[in-house]
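Sequence and structure are kept together here, with a separate record for every protein. A complete record is shown below as an example:
=====
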Amino acid sequence: MSEQRSGIGYGTSASNVILVIGGVSRVSTWLEDYALIGDMQTAALVARDGSIDWMCLPHFDSPAAFAALLGDEQNGHWWIRPAAGSIRATRRRYRPETLILECEWDTPEGTVRVIDFMPPRTGVPHLVRIVEGVSGSVRMSTALRLRFDYGNVVPWIHRSGTEVVAVAGPDSVWLSSPVPMEGHNFMHDSTFTVSAGQRIPFVMTWHPSHTEESDHLDAEKALSRTERFWREWVEKCAYEGDYRDAVVRSLITLKALTYRPTGGIVAAPTTSLPEDIGGVRNWDYRYCWLRDATITLEALMRSGYTDEAHAWREWLVRAVAGEPQHMQIMYGVRGERRLSEWEADWLPGYESSRPVRIGNAAVGQYQLDVYGEVMDALDLARRSGLHSGEHVWGLQRSLVNYLEWCWDEPDEGLWEVRGPRQHFVHSKVMAWVAADRAVRMIEEFGKEGPLERWRSLRDTIHAEVCEYGYDARRNTFTQYYGSQELDAALLLIPEVGFLPYDDPRVVGTIEAIRDDLMVDGFVLRYRTDREDVADKLPGDEGAFLACSFWMANALLSIGREKEARDLFERLLALRNDLGLLAEEYDPRTGRQVGNFPQAFSHVPLVTTALNLSRHDGHRRGEGA
Protein backbone atom coordinates (compact mmCIF):
# COMPACT_ATOMS: atom_id res chain seq x y z
CA MET A 1 0.00 0.00 0.00
CA SER A 2 1.44 3.35 -1.00
CA GLU A 3 1.74 6.23 1.42
CA GLN A 4 0.79 8.58 -1.43
CA ARG A 5 -2.87 9.21 -2.10
CA SER A 6 -5.06 11.99 -3.38
CA GLY A 7 -5.96 13.56 -0.07
CA ILE A 8 -8.97 15.69 0.77
CA GLY A 9 -8.73 18.18 -2.06
CA TYR A 10 -6.97 21.46 -1.54
CA GLY A 11 -9.52 24.20 -1.83
CA THR A 12 -12.38 21.83 -2.65
CA SER A 13 -14.66 22.86 0.22
CA ALA A 14 -17.22 25.55 -0.43
CA SER A 15 -16.71 26.65 3.16
CA ASN A 16 -13.05 27.50 2.64
CA VAL A 17 -12.28 31.19 2.96
CA ILE A 18 -10.22 33.12 0.43
CA LEU A 19 -7.54 35.20 2.13
CA VAL A 20 -5.60 37.96 0.39
CA ILE A 21 -1.94 38.04 1.42
CA GLY A 22 0.27 40.67 -0.11
CA GLY A 23 -1.98 40.85 -3.17
CA VAL A 24 -2.02 37.06 -3.62
CA SER A 25 -5.23 35.15 -2.88
CA ARG A 26 -4.93 32.19 -0.55
CA VAL A 27 -7.43 29.51 0.34
CA SER A 28 -7.79 28.99 4.07
CA THR A 29 -5.65 26.01 5.00
CA TRP A 30 -6.99 22.75 6.35
CA LEU A 31 -4.76 20.57 8.51
CA GLU A 32 -4.59 18.09 5.64
CA ASP A 33 -2.80 20.78 3.62
CA TYR A 34 0.22 20.83 5.94
CA ALA A 35 3.49 18.94 5.77
CA LEU A 36 5.93 18.41 8.64
CA ILE A 37 9.64 19.10 8.54
CA GLY A 38 11.94 19.10 11.56
CA ASP A 39 15.39 18.58 13.06
CA MET A 40 14.42 16.48 16.12
CA GLN A 41 14.44 19.50 18.40
CA THR A 42 11.73 21.57 16.75
CA ALA A 43 9.49 21.38 13.71
CA ALA A 44 7.71 23.48 11.10
CA LEU A 45 4.43 23.08 9.23
CA VAL A 46 4.52 23.87 5.52
CA ALA A 47 1.24 24.54 3.70
CA ARG A 48 0.47 23.28 0.23
CA ASP A 49 0.76 26.81 -1.13
CA GLY A 50 4.38 27.14 0.02
CA SER A 51 3.78 29.05 3.26
CA ILE A 52 5.44 28.02 6.54
CA ASP A 53 2.74 28.91 9.06
CA TRP A 54 4.07 27.40 12.30
CA MET A 55 7.51 27.06 13.79
CA CYS A 56 8.76 27.32 17.37
CA LEU A 57 12.39 28.33 17.96
CA PRO A 58 14.67 26.94 19.13
CA HIS A 59 12.69 23.98 20.57
CA PHE A 60 9.27 22.34 20.30
CA ASP A 61 7.99 24.14 23.39
CA SER A 62 9.61 27.51 22.65
CA PRO A 63 7.51 30.50 21.56
CA ALA A 64 6.57 30.42 17.88
CA ALA A 65 8.32 32.69 15.38
CA PHE A 66 5.74 31.78 12.71
CA ALA A 67 2.23 31.63 14.18
CA ALA A 68 -0.05 32.29 11.19
CA LEU A 69 -1.52 28.82 11.83
CA LEU A 70 -3.29 30.27 14.87
CA GLY A 71 -3.95 33.69 13.42
CA ASP A 72 -3.16 35.25 10.08
CA GLU A 73 -0.15 36.41 8.09
CA GLN A 74 0.45 39.27 10.54
CA ASN A 75 1.36 36.67 13.18
CA GLY A 76 4.32 35.40 11.18
CA HIS A 77 4.88 33.17 8.16
CA TRP A 78 7.24 32.66 5.23
CA TRP A 79 6.09 31.82 1.77
CA ILE A 80 7.92 30.88 -1.42
CA ARG A 81 5.76 30.16 -4.46
CA PRO A 82 5.06 31.24 -8.05
CA ALA A 83 4.20 34.91 -8.34
CA ALA A 84 0.56 35.91 -8.87
CA GLY A 85 -0.80 34.17 -11.95
CA SER A 86 -2.34 30.90 -13.03
CA ILE A 87 -1.06 27.68 -11.49
CA ARG A 88 -2.10 24.68 -13.52
CA ALA A 89 -1.18 21.97 -11.02
CA THR A 90 0.40 21.47 -7.63
CA ARG A 91 2.18 18.30 -6.51
CA ARG A 92 4.10 17.44 -3.38
CA ARG A 93 5.79 14.49 -1.78
CA TYR A 94 8.45 13.55 0.69
CA ARG A 95 11.58 12.22 -0.92
CA PRO A 96 11.24 8.48 -0.34
CA GLU A 97 12.09 7.43 3.22
CA THR A 98 13.07 10.96 4.32
CA LEU A 99 11.60 14.07 5.94
CA ILE A 100 12.60 16.21 2.95
CA LEU A 101 9.59 17.88 1.33
CA GLU A 102 9.33 18.63 -2.38
CA CYS A 103 6.53 20.82 -3.76
CA GLU A 104 6.11 21.38 -7.50
CA TRP A 105 4.01 23.93 -9.34
CA ASP A 106 3.17 23.86 -13.06
CA THR A 107 2.60 27.33 -14.52
CA PRO A 108 2.18 28.61 -18.10
CA GLU A 109 5.86 29.65 -17.99
CA GLY A 110 7.21 26.32 -16.77
CA THR A 111 7.57 24.08 -13.70
CA VAL A 112 9.30 24.92 -10.44
CA ARG A 113 10.13 22.87 -7.36
CA VAL A 114 10.72 24.01 -3.77
CA ILE A 115 12.68 21.66 -1.49
CA ASP A 116 12.08 22.24 2.24
CA PHE A 117 13.96 20.56 5.10
CA MET A 118 15.71 21.04 8.41
CA PRO A 119 19.13 19.36 8.79
CA PRO A 120 19.45 17.13 11.89
CA ARG A 121 20.75 19.59 14.44
CA THR A 122 24.36 19.64 15.53
CA GLY A 123 24.36 23.21 16.83
CA VAL A 124 21.81 25.92 16.11
CA PRO A 125 18.63 25.23 14.09
CA HIS A 126 18.53 25.82 10.34
CA LEU A 127 15.55 25.90 7.99
CA VAL A 128 16.55 25.40 4.34
CA ARG A 129 14.45 26.11 1.24
CA ILE A 130 15.92 25.44 -2.22
CA VAL A 131 14.06 26.74 -5.28
CA GLU A 132 14.79 24.56 -8.31
CA GLY A 133 13.83 25.31 -11.91
CA VAL A 134 12.46 22.18 -13.57
CA SER A 135 11.42 23.59 -16.95
CA GLY A 136 10.98 27.00 -18.56
CA SER A 137 11.49 30.20 -16.55
CA VAL A 138 9.11 30.85 -13.67
CA ARG A 139 8.60 34.14 -11.86
CA MET A 140 8.67 33.46 -8.10
CA SER A 141 7.59 35.39 -5.03
CA THR A 142 8.81 35.18 -1.44
CA ALA A 143 7.72 37.05 1.68
CA LEU A 144 9.10 36.70 5.22
CA ARG A 145 7.23 37.94 8.28
CA LEU A 146 9.00 37.04 11.52
CA ARG A 147 6.94 37.53 14.68
CA PHE A 148 8.51 36.29 17.89
CA ASP A 149 6.58 35.29 21.03
CA TYR A 150 3.67 33.60 19.23
CA GLY A 151 3.13 36.40 16.75
CA ASN A 152 3.17 39.14 19.36
CA VAL A 153 6.62 40.74 18.87
CA VAL A 154 7.76 42.47 15.69
CA PRO A 155 11.58 42.19 15.63
CA TRP A 156 14.05 44.92 14.77
CA ILE A 157 15.38 44.04 11.31
CA HIS A 158 18.59 45.17 9.69
CA ARG A 159 21.08 43.98 7.12
CA SER A 160 24.47 42.44 7.73
CA GLY A 161 26.13 42.29 4.33
CA THR A 162 23.75 40.32 2.11
CA GLU A 163 21.85 38.81 5.04
CA VAL A 164 18.62 39.92 6.67
CA VAL A 165 18.85 39.89 10.47
CA ALA A 166 15.85 39.98 12.83
CA VAL A 167 16.39 40.58 16.56
CA ALA A 168 14.02 40.84 19.53
CA GLY A 169 14.90 40.04 23.14
CA PRO A 170 16.64 36.65 23.33
CA ASP A 171 15.97 35.71 19.70
CA SER A 172 17.80 36.43 16.47
CA VAL A 173 17.15 35.00 13.02
CA TRP A 174 19.44 35.35 10.04
CA LEU A 175 18.25 34.81 6.46
CA SER A 176 20.89 34.13 3.83
CA SER A 177 20.14 33.97 0.10
CA PRO A 178 21.46 35.29 -3.21
CA VAL A 179 18.01 36.83 -3.73
CA PRO A 180 17.93 40.43 -2.43
CA MET A 181 15.04 41.08 -0.03
CA GLU A 182 13.35 44.45 0.35
CA GLY A 183 11.79 45.60 3.62
CA HIS A 184 8.40 47.33 3.91
CA ASN A 185 5.21 47.01 5.93
CA PHE A 186 7.06 45.09 8.67
CA MET A 187 8.04 42.29 6.25
CA HIS A 188 10.73 41.46 3.71
CA ASP A 189 9.84 40.23 0.25
CA SER A 190 11.19 39.76 -3.24
CA THR A 191 10.33 38.51 -6.70
CA PHE A 192 12.85 36.58 -8.75
CA THR A 193 13.01 34.25 -11.73
CA VAL A 194 14.24 30.67 -11.70
CA SER A 195 15.09 28.86 -14.94
CA ALA A 196 15.40 25.18 -15.77
CA GLY A 197 18.44 23.66 -14.06
CA GLN A 198 18.93 26.63 -11.69
CA ARG A 199 18.87 26.16 -7.90
CA ILE A 200 18.48 29.11 -5.54
CA PRO A 201 18.97 28.47 -1.79
CA PHE A 202 17.41 30.26 1.19
CA VAL A 203 18.84 29.43 4.63
CA MET A 204 17.21 30.70 7.82
CA THR A 205 19.21 30.30 11.05
CA TRP A 206 18.23 30.99 14.67
CA HIS A 207 20.67 31.62 17.48
CA PRO A 208 20.56 33.52 20.79
CA SER A 209 20.69 37.24 20.17
CA HIS A 210 23.65 37.71 22.51
CA THR A 211 25.91 35.36 20.52
CA GLU A 212 27.78 35.89 17.30
CA GLU A 213 26.41 34.70 13.99
CA SER A 214 26.99 31.00 13.40
CA ASP A 215 28.97 29.67 10.46
CA HIS A 216 27.16 29.79 7.13
CA LEU A 217 25.41 26.57 6.13
CA ASP A 218 25.99 25.16 2.65
CA ALA A 219 22.43 24.32 1.55
CA GLU A 220 23.38 21.65 -0.98
CA LYS A 221 25.74 19.82 1.36
CA ALA A 222 23.12 20.01 4.11
CA LEU A 223 20.55 18.50 1.74
CA SER A 224 22.83 15.55 0.95
CA ARG A 225 23.64 15.03 4.61
CA THR A 226 19.97 15.19 5.63
CA GLU A 227 18.88 12.73 2.95
CA ARG A 228 21.63 10.32 3.96
CA PHE A 229 20.64 10.59 7.63
CA TRP A 230 17.01 9.67 7.00
CA ARG A 231 17.75 6.90 4.49
CA GLU A 232 20.21 5.25 6.89
CA TRP A 233 17.74 5.57 9.75
CA VAL A 234 14.93 3.94 7.77
CA GLU A 235 17.21 1.03 6.85
CA LYS A 236 16.92 -0.11 10.47
CA CYS A 237 13.18 -0.71 10.13
CA ALA A 238 12.43 -4.39 10.70
CA TYR A 239 8.89 -4.30 9.29
CA GLU A 240 8.44 -5.70 5.76
CA GLY A 241 4.67 -6.25 5.66
CA ASP A 242 1.92 -5.05 3.36
CA TYR A 243 1.74 -1.63 5.00
CA ARG A 244 5.44 -0.78 4.97
CA ASP A 245 5.04 2.67 3.39
CA ALA A 246 2.51 3.74 6.02
CA VAL A 247 4.59 2.27 8.85
CA VAL A 248 7.80 3.94 7.67
CA ARG A 249 6.09 7.33 7.31
CA SER A 250 4.65 7.00 10.82
CA LEU A 251 8.03 6.00 12.25
CA ILE A 252 9.71 8.97 10.54
CA THR A 253 7.02 11.22 12.01
CA LEU A 254 7.60 9.73 15.45
CA LYS A 255 11.35 10.26 15.08
CA ALA A 256 10.71 13.87 14.02
CA LEU A 257 8.68 14.41 17.22
CA THR A 258 11.55 13.10 19.36
CA TYR A 259 13.58 15.67 21.26
CA ARG A 260 16.95 14.21 20.41
CA PRO A 261 19.00 15.50 23.38
CA THR A 262 16.81 13.67 25.93
CA GLY A 263 14.80 11.06 24.03
CA GLY A 264 11.46 12.61 25.06
CA ILE A 265 8.70 12.42 22.44
CA VAL A 266 6.18 15.25 22.18
CA ALA A 267 2.54 14.38 21.54
CA ALA A 268 2.47 16.93 18.70
CA PRO A 269 4.51 19.96 17.58
CA THR A 270 1.50 22.30 17.85
CA THR A 271 -0.81 23.92 20.36
CA SER A 272 -4.51 24.76 20.30
CA LEU A 273 -5.51 23.15 17.02
CA PRO A 274 -9.16 22.53 17.89
CA GLU A 275 -10.93 19.25 18.46
CA ASP A 276 -14.12 21.14 17.63
CA ILE A 277 -13.70 23.83 14.94
CA GLY A 278 -14.66 27.19 16.43
CA GLY A 279 -14.85 25.73 19.94
CA VAL A 280 -12.83 25.77 23.17
CA ARG A 281 -11.38 22.24 23.12
CA ASN A 282 -7.92 23.54 22.30
CA TRP A 283 -4.87 22.22 24.15
CA ASP A 284 -1.09 22.52 24.07
CA TYR A 285 0.42 19.16 23.07
CA ARG A 286 4.11 20.09 22.84
CA TYR A 287 4.93 17.93 25.86
CA CYS A 288 5.56 14.28 26.72
CA TRP A 289 2.71 12.19 28.18
CA LEU A 290 3.31 9.11 30.31
CA ARG A 291 0.19 7.54 28.76
CA ASP A 292 2.19 7.12 25.54
CA ALA A 293 5.04 5.23 27.19
CA THR A 294 4.12 1.58 26.69
CA ILE A 295 2.68 1.77 23.18
CA THR A 296 5.58 3.92 22.02
CA LEU A 297 8.14 1.51 23.45
CA GLU A 298 6.31 -1.41 21.87
CA ALA A 299 6.16 0.24 18.45
CA LEU A 300 9.84 1.19 18.52
CA MET A 301 11.07 -2.17 19.80
CA ARG A 302 8.99 -4.23 17.39
CA SER A 303 10.08 -2.04 14.47
CA GLY A 304 13.78 -2.48 15.22
CA TYR A 305 14.53 0.89 16.84
CA THR A 306 16.13 -0.18 20.10
CA ASP A 307 18.26 2.97 20.44
CA GLU A 308 15.19 5.19 20.32
CA ALA A 309 13.32 2.87 22.69
CA HIS A 310 16.22 3.01 25.14
CA ALA A 311 16.35 6.82 24.95
CA TRP A 312 12.58 7.05 25.55
CA ARG A 313 12.84 4.67 28.53
CA GLU A 314 15.70 6.71 30.00
CA TRP A 315 13.72 9.95 29.57
CA LEU A 316 10.82 8.27 31.38
CA VAL A 317 12.96 7.15 34.32
CA ARG A 318 14.54 10.59 34.73
CA ALA A 319 11.23 12.44 34.39
CA VAL A 320 9.34 10.45 37.05
CA ALA A 321 12.24 10.27 39.51
CA GLY A 322 11.36 11.70 42.91
CA GLU A 323 8.57 11.18 45.38
CA PRO A 324 5.83 9.01 43.81
CA GLN A 325 3.03 11.24 45.10
CA HIS A 326 4.45 14.01 42.93
CA MET A 327 4.48 12.01 39.70
CA GLN A 328 2.77 13.93 36.89
CA ILE A 329 0.84 12.81 33.82
CA MET A 330 3.15 14.77 31.50
CA TYR A 331 6.50 16.53 31.48
CA GLY A 332 8.49 18.86 29.28
CA VAL A 333 10.90 17.50 26.68
CA ARG A 334 13.77 17.92 29.14
CA GLY A 335 11.71 16.58 32.03
CA GLU A 336 10.33 19.94 33.21
CA ARG A 337 7.47 19.77 35.69
CA ARG A 338 6.11 23.31 35.57
CA LEU A 339 3.94 23.62 32.45
CA SER A 340 1.68 26.44 33.61
CA GLU A 341 -1.21 27.22 31.26
CA TRP A 342 -2.00 30.72 29.98
CA GLU A 343 -3.85 32.20 27.02
CA ALA A 344 -2.35 34.10 24.07
CA ASP A 345 -5.32 36.43 23.78
CA TRP A 346 -3.91 38.33 20.79
CA LEU A 347 -4.26 35.24 18.58
CA PRO A 348 -7.74 34.59 17.13
CA GLY A 349 -7.09 30.85 16.91
CA TYR A 350 -7.27 28.37 14.08
CA GLU A 351 -10.51 29.16 12.22
CA SER A 352 -11.57 31.34 15.19
CA SER A 353 -11.14 28.52 17.71
CA ARG A 354 -10.33 30.26 20.98
CA PRO A 355 -8.68 30.36 23.40
CA VAL A 356 -5.15 29.72 22.22
CA ARG A 357 -3.53 27.97 25.18
CA ILE A 358 0.17 27.89 25.98
CA GLY A 359 1.12 25.30 28.58
CA ASN A 360 -1.28 22.68 29.88
CA ALA A 361 -3.16 22.89 33.18
CA ALA A 362 -3.85 19.14 33.02
CA VAL A 363 -0.29 18.73 34.33
CA GLY A 364 -1.74 19.24 37.81
CA GLN A 365 -4.41 16.57 37.48
CA TYR A 366 -4.39 13.35 39.45
CA GLN A 367 -4.53 10.47 37.00
CA LEU A 368 -4.22 7.09 38.64
CA ASP A 369 -3.50 5.28 35.39
CA VAL A 370 -0.01 6.79 35.01
CA TYR A 371 1.36 4.44 37.68
CA GLY A 372 0.29 1.51 35.56
CA GLU A 373 1.65 3.15 32.39
CA VAL A 374 5.10 3.57 33.94
CA MET A 375 5.20 0.08 35.47
CA ASP A 376 4.01 -1.49 32.22
CA ALA A 377 6.57 0.41 30.15
CA LEU A 378 9.44 -0.58 32.43
CA ASP A 379 8.25 -4.19 32.44
CA LEU A 380 8.11 -4.20 28.64
CA ALA A 381 11.57 -2.66 28.45
CA ARG A 382 12.98 -5.36 30.71
CA ARG A 383 11.35 -8.15 28.71
CA SER A 384 12.64 -6.62 25.48
CA GLY A 385 16.24 -6.71 26.70
CA LEU A 386 16.61 -3.08 27.81
CA HIS A 387 18.30 -3.86 31.12
CA SER A 388 18.53 -1.22 33.82
CA GLY A 389 20.18 -0.76 37.18
CA GLU A 390 18.74 -1.54 40.59
CA HIS A 391 17.77 2.12 40.98
CA VAL A 392 14.98 1.54 38.43
CA TRP A 393 13.56 -1.32 40.51
CA GLY A 394 13.82 0.94 43.53
CA LEU A 395 11.73 3.53 41.66
CA GLN A 396 9.17 0.88 40.74
CA ARG A 397 8.92 -0.32 44.34
CA SER A 398 8.26 3.19 45.59
CA LEU A 399 5.52 3.68 42.98
CA VAL A 400 3.68 0.51 43.99
CA ASN A 401 4.12 1.23 47.70
CA TYR A 402 2.45 4.58 47.14
CA LEU A 403 -0.24 3.04 44.94
CA GLU A 404 -1.31 0.83 47.85
CA TRP A 405 -2.52 3.97 49.61
CA CYS A 406 -4.12 5.85 46.72
CA TRP A 407 -5.56 3.36 44.20
CA ASP A 408 -9.09 3.54 45.62
CA GLU A 409 -9.34 7.33 45.24
CA PRO A 410 -11.25 8.92 42.31
CA ASP A 411 -9.21 10.66 39.62
CA GLU A 412 -9.51 12.72 36.42
CA GLY A 413 -8.85 9.73 34.18
CA LEU A 414 -6.92 9.09 31.00
CA TRP A 415 -8.78 11.72 28.98
CA GLU A 416 -8.04 14.58 31.38
CA VAL A 417 -11.67 15.62 31.67
CA ARG A 418 -12.03 18.97 33.35
CA GLY A 419 -14.98 17.90 35.46
CA PRO A 420 -15.38 16.16 38.84
CA ARG A 421 -13.16 13.22 39.69
CA GLN A 422 -14.63 9.75 39.20
CA HIS A 423 -13.67 6.14 39.79
CA PHE A 424 -12.72 5.59 36.15
CA VAL A 425 -12.58 1.92 35.22
CA HIS A 426 -9.56 2.34 32.97
CA SER A 427 -7.69 4.03 35.83
CA LYS A 428 -8.44 1.13 38.17
CA VAL A 429 -7.41 -1.39 35.52
CA MET A 430 -4.08 0.40 35.15
CA ALA A 431 -3.65 0.36 38.94
CA TRP A 432 -4.08 -3.42 38.65
CA VAL A 433 -1.42 -3.37 35.90
CA ALA A 434 1.03 -1.64 38.24
CA ALA A 435 0.54 -4.27 40.94
CA ASP A 436 0.64 -7.12 38.43
CA ARG A 437 3.90 -5.96 36.84
CA ALA A 438 5.48 -5.61 40.28
CA VAL A 439 4.47 -9.17 41.15
CA ARG A 440 5.87 -10.44 37.84
CA MET A 441 9.19 -8.70 38.44
CA ILE A 442 9.53 -10.63 41.70
CA GLU A 443 8.26 -13.96 40.36
CA GLU A 444 10.06 -13.97 37.02
CA PHE A 445 13.14 -11.83 37.51
CA GLY A 446 13.94 -12.51 41.16
CA LYS A 447 13.53 -8.94 42.41
CA GLU A 448 13.03 -8.38 46.12
CA GLY A 449 9.69 -7.11 47.32
CA PRO A 450 6.57 -7.90 49.42
CA LEU A 451 5.20 -10.54 47.05
CA GLU A 452 2.16 -11.67 49.04
CA ARG A 453 1.11 -8.12 49.86
CA TRP A 454 1.25 -7.07 46.22
CA ARG A 455 -0.55 -10.20 45.10
CA SER A 456 -3.30 -9.30 47.55
CA LEU A 457 -3.39 -5.73 46.17
CA ARG A 458 -3.66 -7.03 42.62
CA ASP A 459 -6.50 -9.39 43.52
CA THR A 460 -8.39 -6.72 45.48
CA ILE A 461 -8.30 -4.24 42.60
CA HIS A 462 -9.36 -6.91 40.10
CA ALA A 463 -12.34 -7.96 42.19
CA GLU A 464 -13.50 -4.38 42.74
CA VAL A 465 -13.34 -3.49 39.03
CA CYS A 466 -15.30 -6.59 38.07
CA GLU A 467 -17.95 -5.79 40.70
CA TYR A 468 -18.40 -2.04 40.36
CA GLY A 469 -17.09 -1.30 36.86
CA TYR A 470 -19.05 -3.98 35.02
CA ASP A 471 -22.69 -3.78 33.93
CA ALA A 472 -23.93 -7.39 33.92
CA ARG A 473 -27.27 -6.43 32.36
CA ARG A 474 -25.59 -5.04 29.23
CA ASN A 475 -22.52 -7.30 29.45
CA THR A 476 -20.05 -4.44 29.29
CA PHE A 477 -17.58 -2.56 31.43
CA THR A 478 -18.46 1.11 31.91
CA GLN A 479 -16.66 4.44 31.88
CA TYR A 480 -16.63 4.76 35.67
CA TYR A 481 -18.29 3.12 38.65
CA GLY A 482 -22.05 3.55 38.50
CA SER A 483 -22.00 5.10 35.04
CA GLN A 484 -24.15 4.01 32.12
CA GLU A 485 -21.61 5.40 29.65
CA LEU A 486 -18.79 3.73 27.77
CA ASP A 487 -15.16 4.67 27.25
CA ALA A 488 -12.95 3.57 24.34
CA ALA A 489 -10.10 3.04 26.80
CA LEU A 490 -11.97 -0.09 27.92
CA LEU A 491 -10.70 -1.67 24.71
CA LEU A 492 -7.33 -1.91 26.47
CA ILE A 493 -8.62 -4.25 29.21
CA PRO A 494 -7.46 -7.40 27.41
CA GLU A 495 -4.45 -5.67 25.85
CA VAL A 496 -2.90 -5.14 29.30
CA GLY A 497 -3.80 -8.65 30.48
CA PHE A 498 -6.59 -7.78 32.93
CA LEU A 499 -8.86 -10.33 31.22
CA PRO A 500 -8.29 -12.50 28.13
CA TYR A 501 -9.78 -11.52 24.78
CA ASP A 502 -12.07 -14.55 24.76
CA ASP A 503 -13.68 -13.61 28.09
CA PRO A 504 -17.41 -12.96 27.39
CA ARG A 505 -17.18 -9.68 29.31
CA VAL A 506 -14.39 -8.48 27.01
CA VAL A 507 -16.25 -9.49 23.85
CA GLY A 508 -19.38 -7.79 25.19
CA THR A 509 -17.45 -4.60 25.91
CA ILE A 510 -15.93 -4.53 22.41
CA GLU A 511 -19.38 -5.02 20.87
CA ALA A 512 -20.95 -2.35 23.10
CA ILE A 513 -18.29 0.20 22.17
CA ARG A 514 -18.68 -0.67 18.51
CA ASP A 515 -22.43 -0.11 18.76
CA ASP A 516 -22.39 3.05 20.89
CA LEU A 517 -19.14 4.93 20.27
CA MET A 518 -18.60 4.29 16.56
CA VAL A 519 -19.71 7.21 14.38
CA ASP A 520 -19.56 6.76 10.61
CA GLY A 521 -17.21 3.85 11.16
CA PHE A 522 -14.78 5.54 13.58
CA VAL A 523 -14.53 5.48 17.39
CA LEU A 524 -15.20 8.33 19.82
CA ARG A 525 -13.31 8.45 23.12
CA TYR A 526 -16.61 8.80 24.97
CA ARG A 527 -19.88 10.62 24.46
CA THR A 528 -19.66 14.36 25.10
CA ASP A 529 -23.35 14.96 24.33
CA ARG A 530 -24.88 13.28 27.38
CA GLU A 531 -25.43 14.71 30.85
CA ASP A 532 -24.04 11.62 32.57
CA VAL A 533 -20.55 12.15 31.15
CA ALA A 534 -17.94 13.81 33.37
CA ASP A 535 -16.75 16.08 30.55
CA LYS A 536 -18.28 19.49 31.32
CA LEU A 537 -16.87 21.37 28.31
CA PRO A 538 -19.16 22.81 25.63
CA GLY A 539 -19.10 21.48 22.08
CA ASP A 540 -18.29 18.12 20.58
CA GLU A 541 -15.16 16.45 19.30
CA GLY A 542 -14.24 14.17 16.44
CA ALA A 543 -13.49 10.48 16.44
CA PHE A 544 -10.24 9.87 18.32
CA LEU A 545 -7.98 8.10 15.87
CA ALA A 546 -6.00 6.13 18.47
CA CYS A 547 -9.27 4.66 19.74
CA SER A 548 -10.18 3.57 16.23
CA PHE A 549 -6.83 1.76 15.91
CA TRP A 550 -7.50 0.14 19.30
CA MET A 551 -10.82 -1.10 17.95
CA ALA A 552 -9.09 -2.60 14.90
CA ASN A 553 -6.70 -4.45 17.23
CA ALA A 554 -9.57 -5.62 19.43
CA LEU A 555 -11.57 -6.92 16.48
CA LEU A 556 -8.51 -8.76 15.18
CA SER A 557 -7.94 -10.35 18.58
CA ILE A 558 -11.49 -11.74 18.85
CA GLY A 559 -11.26 -13.30 15.40
CA ARG A 560 -12.94 -10.64 13.27
CA GLU A 561 -10.04 -10.10 10.92
CA LYS A 562 -12.01 -8.73 7.97
CA GLU A 563 -13.68 -6.08 10.16
CA ALA A 564 -10.31 -5.23 11.66
CA ARG A 565 -8.56 -4.89 8.32
CA ASP A 566 -11.43 -2.88 6.81
CA LEU A 567 -11.32 -0.44 9.73
CA PHE A 568 -7.53 -0.17 9.55
CA GLU A 569 -7.62 0.62 5.86
CA ARG A 570 -10.37 3.21 6.38
CA LEU A 571 -8.07 4.84 8.94
CA LEU A 572 -5.16 4.80 6.49
CA ALA A 573 -7.38 6.54 3.95
CA LEU A 574 -7.83 9.47 6.38
CA ARG A 575 -4.13 10.35 6.17
CA ASN A 576 -3.30 13.36 4.06
CA ASP A 577 -1.43 12.95 0.78
CA LEU A 578 1.85 12.86 2.74
CA GLY A 579 0.74 10.13 5.16
CA LEU A 580 0.13 12.37 8.20
CA LEU A 581 -2.63 12.16 10.83
CA ALA A 582 -3.98 14.61 13.37
CA GLU A 583 -5.43 13.62 16.72
CA GLU A 584 -9.01 13.19 15.55
CA TYR A 585 -11.26 12.97 12.50
CA ASP A 586 -14.58 14.81 12.31
CA PRO A 587 -17.03 12.74 10.24
CA ARG A 588 -19.45 15.67 10.12
CA THR A 589 -17.09 17.84 8.12
CA GLY A 590 -14.79 15.19 6.65
CA ARG A 591 -11.74 16.87 8.19
CA GLN A 592 -8.87 16.05 10.48
CA VAL A 593 -9.04 18.00 13.75
CA GLY A 594 -6.89 18.41 16.85
CA ASN A 595 -3.15 18.90 17.07
CA PHE A 596 -1.16 17.84 14.03
CA PRO A 597 0.61 15.58 13.36
CA GLN A 598 -0.16 13.49 16.41
CA ALA A 599 2.19 10.84 17.80
CA PHE A 600 -0.72 9.14 19.59
CA SER A 601 -2.29 8.47 16.17
CA HIS A 602 0.85 7.30 14.39
CA VAL A 603 2.08 4.94 17.13
CA PRO A 604 -1.06 2.71 17.16
CA LEU A 605 -1.01 2.79 13.35
CA VAL A 606 2.39 1.08 13.56
CA THR A 607 1.34 -1.48 16.19
CA THR A 608 -1.88 -2.32 14.33
CA ALA A 609 0.03 -2.89 11.09
CA LEU A 610 2.48 -5.11 12.97
CA ASN A 611 -0.37 -7.09 14.52
CA LEU A 612 -2.11 -7.57 11.18
CA SER A 613 1.11 -8.80 9.62
CA ARG A 614 1.79 -11.12 12.56
CA HIS A 615 -1.71 -12.52 12.19
CA ASP A 616 -1.04 -13.11 8.47
CA GLY A 617 2.16 -14.93 9.39
CA HIS A 618 0.39 -17.16 11.89
CA ARG A 619 -2.32 -17.96 9.36
CA ARG A 620 0.19 -18.79 6.63
CA GLY A 621 2.12 -20.97 9.07
CA GLU A 622 -1.01 -22.89 10.05
CA GLY A 623 -1.81 -23.59 6.43
CA ALA A 624 1.64 -24.86 5.58
Remarks:
- The two ends are 26 Å apart (CA to CA).
- Residues 599-623 form the longest helix (25 residues).
- Residues 18-210+217-232 form a domain with the Beta-galactosidase; Chain A, domain 5 fold (CATH 2.70.98.40).
